[in-house]
Each structure stands twice: as structure tokens, then as C-alpha cells.
Amino acid sequence: MTYQVWLQPKVRKYLDSLNEDEVRLCKDSLFKLREDPFRRRSGCDIKKLEGYRKKLYRLRVGKHRFEYFVKEKDVVVYQAFHRERGYR
């Protein structure tokens, strides 16, 4: 099953603030979520986040983190930040 990946406007804004190499690396990893947004594999470091009412996941791409949830066939990436900022 393939999934549709949706980026929230603040995630797009975050990607626009990065240099070209980082953007390419992040987008490649984000679009790998189309194949399987739940399983950790090479080039796609995924972890399920605990302590939230919704089932949230984190994608790690170098120094960047992306939080997302899955709703039916949609992967909604709603948060992006540098690892130094940490989690809320």
C-alpha cells in the first residue's frame, strides 16, 4: 500500500530555511514514508513517540526531526525542527 505524504505549511517553511543539500536529504527521507511510515529501515529512521493520545511518529534525518501521524492512507507531517530545539 502506498501512502500520500502531506507537509504542513510550517514544515515547508522550515525546509525553505535549509541549504540545498539538507533539503534534498530531508525530502528524500520524507518521501520514503510513502512506502511504509511505520517501519524503521535504511535511510528512514522512524520511532513511535510515547505519551501522546494520538499515535505520533518521529523521522530523524541527520540533525533534523519531523513529527507526523498517519490517518488512513495519508501521512501528515505537522512538525519540523532542529534536534537542538528538542521536543515539546
Keywords:
globular, YaeB-like fold, alpha+beta, 2 helices, 88 residues, five-stranded mixed beta sheet
The total tally of domains equals 1
Distance between the termini: 32 Å
Q: According to CATH, what is the class?
A: Alpha Beta
Oligomer designation: single chain
Order of helical and strand elements = EHHEEEE
- Tally of contiguous helical segments: 2
Shape: globular
Summarize the structure.
With about 90 residues, this protein is α+β, with helices and mostly antiparallel strands. It has helices spanning about 10-15, 20-30; strands at about 5, 45-50, 55-60, 65-70, 75-80.
Can you tell me about this structure?
The protein is an alpha+beta fold. The chain has one domain (4-82): YaeB-like fold (2-Layer Sandwich), CATH 3.30.2310.20. It is 23% helix and 36% strand. The chain has two helices and five strands. Strand 2 and strand 3 (56-61) form a beta hairpin.
